[in-house]
Amino acid sequence: MSLTQKIIFTLNGKPVQADAQVTASALELLRGAFELGGTKLACGEGECGACTIIVDGRSRNSCLLPAVDLDGREVLTVEGLWSEDGIDPVQQAFIDEGAIQCGFCTPGMIMQTKYLLSKNPRMTPEEIERGLEGNVCRCTGYKKIISAVAAASAVAAE
Ligand code: FES
Ligand code: FES
Predict the structure, then answer these.
(1) Among 12, 8, 72, which Cα is nearest to 38's?
(2) Cβ distance 20 to 70 under 8 Å?
(3) How far is the CA of 19 from the centre of ligand 1 (A)?
(4) Contact of 94 with 148, CB cutoff 8 Å
(5) Ligand 1 pocket, residue 136 CB under 6 Å
(6) Ramachandran category for residue 18: left, alpha or beta (phi over 0 → left; psi -120 to 50 → alpha)
(7) Is the per-residue pLDDT at 157 higher than 90?
(8) What whole-number percentage of the chain has pLDDT above 70?
(9) CA-to-CA distance for 5 and 29, rounded, in angstroms?
(10) Mutation test residue for ligand 2: of 48, 106, 132, 149, the one with most atoms within 8 Å of CB
(11) Is 40's pLDDT higher than 70?
């Protein structure tokens, strides 16, 4: 028997509700009930950052966060970055800098960057490297990712 709990929260700017399994992670809920596949499952252990989302303004590894803990929160996933103006400047910076290969880490990198810029729009290269320490990429070697975040930081600081 699986126990569920009704939760109500704000998802990408819209009020939503769900019957969350008490054993499920936020990642499972977002990818399952809400079909938001941008948030990736890689390690499932809080080590890689592929599942990064923003909850009440803080970046969180959604694979470690219980789904029921989303109750009453403001949740932002990579899908929520789209607006009528188009894609987010951070997404554009990743495209412009060619900071994507397989793309599996990219949503997590972008969400972590959004969080970092919300705290500090003028990041130094050292602050960028430290801020992305929890986000792993198997493909790019990080150089272009760091360039993309620096470019996004330059835009954010304007
Ligand atoms: S899948 Fe969540 S940190 Fe790796
Ligand atoms: S682009 Fe492939 S894991 Fe980062």
Answers:
(1) 12
(2) yes
(3) 23
(4) yes
(5) no
(6) beta
(7) no
(8) 99
(9) 12
(10) 106
(11) yes
Q: What is the pTM of this model?
A: 0.96
- Could you give all domains of the chain from N- to C-terminal order, each with its CATH number? 4-81 (3.10.20.30), 89-156 (1.10.150.120)
Beta bridge pairs of residue 7: 18
CA atoms within 13 A on the CB side of 35: 0
Q: How far apart, in whole angstroms, are the C-alpha atoms of residue 61 and residue 12?
A: 17
Q: What ligand has the least distance to the C-alpha of 142?
A: 2
**Do residues 24 and 41 touch, judged by C-beta distance below 8 A?**
no
Measured from the CB, is residue 102 less than 6 Å from ligand 2?
yes
Mention every residue, 6+ apart, whose C-beta is less than 8 A from residue 124.
none
* Site of tokens 């987010």: 88
Q: Whose CA is nearest to atom 2 of ligand 2?
A: 102
Task: Report the mean per-residue pLDDT for the chain.
Answer: 96
Q: For residues 103 and 91, what is the distance between their CA atoms, to the nearest angstrom?
A: 12
The CB density around residue 157, as the number of other CB atoms within 10 Å, is: 11
pLDDT in tens, 93-127: 999 999 999 999 999 999 999 999 999 999 999 99
Q: Are 78 and 111 in contact (CB under 8 A)?
A: yes
